[in-house]
Amino acid sequence: MYRLCPIKLWRNLSLFFAALAVAAALAGTLWGGGTLATHWGADGAPNQVSPTWVLWLLALLSVVSLFTSGSFSRAAPGQRALTGETAGALCAALTATWALAGTALAVYALWPSPLVPGVGAGAIAGCYVVFLLLARWRKGVSP
After folding, report:
1. Which residues contact 94 (CB under 8 A, 6 or more apart)?
2. 49-59: per-residue pLDDT in tens?
3. Fewer CB atoms near the end CB (10 Å): N or C, the chain?
4. 3-state secondary structure string, the chain?
5. What is the widest separation between alpha-carbon atoms in the chain?
6. What is the pLDDT of residues 79-88, one digit of tens each?
7. Model-level pTM?
8. 10 Å Cβ neighbour count for 75?
């Protein structure tokens, strides 16, 4: 029913990112103050804040994403099923999305540098590219 990814690399990466999300939520809650910047304007200044429970919501989404590889590898009406490698890579990337978003918010709360939102967004986008390329490479290398 609810299973982690069967491929060890993607399962371990997903577990790492879920743990990172929980650690970021804990750090942001304890040391980040009462509110988090959650939206930045064109000038790089925050223009919207949210309470710190948002970090726990992102951590929950990251933990729930651990179990998505099964749904990615099932065929949907009108679509083919993804391979196990690709499903595992997407599962790890989805888990990383929520974890890195929460980490970026927590880091900005602790160190409000204008670089943090851009680095966080770049890391999220980079995870999808790197993980899918790695899955393609592993699929071609494995027998």
Report:
1. 65, 68
2. 899 999 999 99
3. C
4. CCCCCCCHHHHHHHHHHHHHHHHHHHHHHHHCCCEEEEEECCCCCEEEEEECHHHHHHHHHHHHHHHCHHHHCCCCCCCCCCCHHHHHHHHHHHHHHHHHHHHHHHHHHHCCCCHHHHHHHHHHHHHHHHHHHHHHHHHHHCC
5. 52
6. 787 888 899 9
7. 0.89
8. 9
**Type of residue at 27:** A
Spatial distance between the Cα atoms of 14 and 92, rounded to a whole number of angstroms: 5
Pairwise pLDDT comparison (78 vs 27), residue with the higher score: 27
Contact between residue 92 and residue 6 where contact means Cβ atoms under 8 Å apart: no
Using the CB atoms, write b or e for 17-55: b if 16+ within 10 Å: bbebbbebbebbbeebeeebbbebeeeeebeeeeebebb
